[in-house]
Amino acid sequence: MEYEMYISVGLHRAQHRRHGQRNLPMKQKQWPRHKPASPPSIKKQKNSYALAKSSKPPKFPQFNPSPDASSTSTSISAVPYDALVRIASSFTLPDLRAASLVCRAWRDALKPLSEAMALFRRGKQFKHGLGRVQPSLGKALDCFLKAAARGSILAMVDAGLIYWEMGKFEKAVVWYRRAAELGDPAGQCNLAISFLQAKPPNTKEAVEWLYKASVAGHARAQYQLALCFHQGKGVEQSVQEAAGWYARAAEGGYARAMYNTSLCYSLGEGLVQSDMLARKWMRRAADHGHSKAQYEHGLALISEGDAMNGVVYLELATRAGEMAAAPARDAVLEQLSATCRKRAVLLADKWRALASSSR
Fold first, then answer.
1. 126 is a domain residue
2. Where is the composition biased (Low complexity) (predicted)?
3. Per the domain annotation, does 120 fall within a domain?
4. Which of 245, 272, 288 is the last residue of a domain?
5. Minimal CA–CA distance to 198: which of 233, 241, 169, 239?
6. Quick check: 212 and 184 in contact, CB under 8 A?
7. How far is CA 40 from CA 211, 235, 292, in A?
8. Distance (Å, rounded) from C-alpha 147 to C-alpha 152?
9. Other C-beta atoms lying within 10 Å of the C-beta of residue 16
């Protein structure tokens, strides 16, 4: 914590220097732990859910101006190299640039990470074909490996992803574990999923990593942990715990969790039964591109008399591969005028899914 305070101080100083201020005035059916503490219990409330929360907000170290500025500067520059690099490994490029302005020691220590960030961005260009660059998984992997060797946690995760796509699962697990042990939630989640998909699966260790990522706010990990609770994989089966983690993941923007949260509210499993909240989460899942939710939400709209919008969702579900949606769509289209049919297709063409959490 002492080192994190120094780094926070250094970043504030660097940012003020950049602005010319020298004086520093004084942040699908998708139903189905060393050991971490038991997951927080989910308390039932009428028409909603309540998650265990800390009663006090976290306190961050504050920098107070000291008359002996030289002693503070010496303390900042004396932060051990390993501690500095570990804390800064997940910094964005602007943060790295700001931290490098603190003192010469920091500039030299963070130079590899600055190089790593440049390599990571280049790797993203090769992976996704950005900036007029031809897509190349091989070149992307090369950039990610070089960036990971310089300490980039983000590159470690992406290197693991490419190895996984190539079918080189053991190499993928190596990089996922490195990122996970450095505290990265995405690395922890991917490592856990690789354990769940192993033959035989290592469910106990998978749940431990999922819980670490989940309490850090990783939506996909929260959803996977919910599935483990729902199916009793590596943990005692608990519908209430499952519903609570589905709800957290849904609030975090994960479409599959939105759909399952809707089902929990609809059936009263783990959450107090509520048709209103069930409809709310079903629509959210549909708007985030969940095909089965689009189908069910479309049917609900039609039953409420909104055939136009209902058929749009059925069309979207059909395009996404929901086989049951096509017959229902056709039956409704036959009852609409030619103008309404054209409008429905036009609305489906212009529709764009809301951004979902891929984490």
1. no
2. 65-74
3. no
4. 288
5. 169
6. no
7. 10, 14, 30
8. 6
9. 16
- Cα–Cα distance, 235 to 285 (Å, whole number): 27
Distance of CA 104 to the CA centre of its chain: 35
| Closest C-alpha among 267, 264, 201 to residue 228 | 201
Q: Could you tell me if 257 and 351 lie in one domain?
A: no
Q: pTM (2 decimals)?
A: 0.75
Tokens of 30: 């998708």
Alpha carbon separation from 171 to 161, 195, 208 (Å, rounded)? 10, 13, 21
Single-letter residue type at 129: G
Q: Quick count: other Cβ atoms within 10 Å of Cβ 148?
A: 24
**Range list of H helices, the chain:** 2-18, 69-77, 81-88, 93-100, 104-128, 137-149, 153-165, 169-181, 185-196, 203-215, 219-231, 239-251, 255-267, 275-287, 291-303, 307-319, 325-333, 338-350
Element (H, E) at 51: strand 48-51
- Residue 208: burial class (beta carbons within 10 Å; 0-12, 13-18, 19+): buried
Total count of domains within the chain: 2
Do 261 and 229 contact (CB within 8 A), yes or no? no
Q: What is the CB neighbour count within 10 angstroms for residue 320?
A: 15
Q: pLDDT tens digits for the chain (359 residues)?
A: 444 444 454 555 545 444 444 444 444 445 544 444 454 444 444 444 444 444 454 444 444 444 444 444 455 556 665 666 666 766 777 777 787 787 777 777 778 888 888 999 999 999 999 988 999 999 999 999 999 998 899 999 999 999 999 999 999 999 999 999 999 999 999 999 999 999 999 999 999 999 999 999 999 999 999 999 999 999 999 999 999 999 999 999 999 999 999 999 999 999 999 999 999 999 999 999 999 999 999 999 999 999 999 999 999 999 999 999 999 999 999 999 999 999 999 999 999 999 887 65
Residues 154 and 93: their CA atoms lie apart, in Å, by 12
